[in-house]
Every structure is written in structure tokens, then in C-alpha cells.
Predict the 3D structure of the following.
Amino acid sequence: MAAITRLARSSSSISYLRRCLSSAISSETNPLFTSRKDPKDRNVQWVFLGCPGVGKGTYASRLCKLLGVPHIATGDLVREELASSGPLSQQLSEIVNQGKLVSDEIIISLLSKRLESGEAKGDSGFILDGFPRTINQAEILEGVTDIDLVVNLKLQENVLLEKCLGRRICSECGKNFNLASINVKGENGNPGISMAPLLPPPHCTSKLITRSDDTETVVKERLRVYSEKSQPVEEFYRSRGKLLEFDLPGGIPQSWPKLLEALNLDDYEEKQSAAA
Ligand code: ADP
């Protein structure tokens, strides 16, 4: 809890943050902030780390469907807040469009609200995507719940940029697609990598939009911010023996089965599809 106290002390909006944190932490039933239960008695509590464009959202949401847990992506929470034109949206839009990180106070507040609404729906377990992204956030999380596993997805940087620039979202159904066709030859000890584009179905084609922070300048800044603020989070979990490093071997068809294998879930998927 020291981290929470430290964060609260350093905050200019102390009372607001305290209210957000205390409601999240003291809520008796909140699935994230009260779940120091035996891991066998509860659903998974996992974190997905990785640079912008690596595919955290894609793989985390697939795993969530498979495991029946909510996919909680703080980037989505930020974008929802932006779209709502609420009191924070002007401030958030400036930060996000410069490729910077939103303050820990705002992120904790958005996450607390998301957890409260999930709890009301009976959610249990989670995969967090894009949180924690600073050591401070990791310490706060560690102070309030046990994380079972942290999956660190990895791809070479030139591929990450191409993937961010190729990313498209259907403004109607919200699904993510990617127009980039990646074909990088292996060199300097790096293996080659090919990724076919993930094209939208015809009914989405005319509704595709690009994220405002997926421009070359902003993606490069996000990658810089990741190595400065978020890479230390990898070490935080590595030193606790919770980090699973996963080098993506290609696009979804190559990577998904390998990821399931690395997570010992290959049998699980077969059993699930047999039961369906
Ligand atoms: P990325 O593709 O860079 O991983 P996300 O969709 O996860 O993007 O996040 C979009 C933006 O939302 C980030 O660039 C940052 O401004 C903000 N954001 C998301 N999660 C966090 C977090 N945990 N802490 C601070 N800012 C965050």
C-alpha cells in the first residue's frame, strides 16, 4: 500500500484519487482489488505487456473468449472516455495524440470504474492489456491483488511501426483489422517474419477508421515512451518469476497455436471446441 500512499501524496488531486482508490480497494466484492484467494478457486488474473502494435489486444481478447474472463484494455478505456466528450476528454486527447502516457491517477480512476461495472455484471478474473505500464502502476497492482502470469509479447521494432500504420478499426462493429503486409528478411541474427494482412469483410470496408495516434511521429514517440517507462515493468515481473517471454513467430495463424502451447492451453482449446 506504500505505493498508493506515495502516489496519493504526490498527487495534486489527492481527494479525487483517494476516493477512486479507496472505493476500488475497499469494495468487498470487487474482483480485482479483493482477490487474494487461492488461484485454484478463481479465474485467471493475467497481464499482457508489449510494445504498441505488437498485438496485445488481439491475443488478449482471443484468450479472454477462450477462458471466459473479461478483457480489460486501459487504452480502450481511454478511448471510450475520449469519445464520451466528458470532462477529461480534452486533456486526454492532447496526451494521447502526443504519444505520452496518461497520468496514473486518471488511469487508476478509469480502471476502478471499469472494475465496478464488471463486478456488477458478475465478472470474475481478467486479462489486463496495457496496464500496468509504469513501475508505479505495477506496485499499486501488486499492493492490491495477485497476478498469476505476465505475458510479454515481442516483435522487432520495424514491424511494430508498420503494424501500427496499417491498423484500421471498423467504426460500426469496433473490430480491428490490419492492412499491412509484413515481409521482413532475416538479418543480423534476427529471424525473418511474414504476416499476412488481416482484411475486413466487405460490410466493414467502407467504415474503416484509423486511430488518431497511429501516425508515424506518434507511434515512434509511443515506442520511445514504452522503452523508457514500460520496459522496466518487464523486469519488475521477471524478477518475481512471473514473466513469460513470447516472440511472435508471424501472424495469427502461426502465433496463436504457439501461444496456446506456451500457456499450456493447447489441450484446453481442443476440449472447449469439442464441448461446443
Ligand atoms: P498502444 O498501442 O500504444 O499499446 P493503447 O491502446 O494500449 O496503445 O493505449 C493508447 C494510449 O492510452 C496510450 O498511448 C496512453 O496515452 C494511454 N494509456 C493506455 N493505458 C495506459 C496506462 N496504463 N497508463 C498510462 N497511459 C495509458
Notes: Residues 216-238 form the longest helix (23 residues).
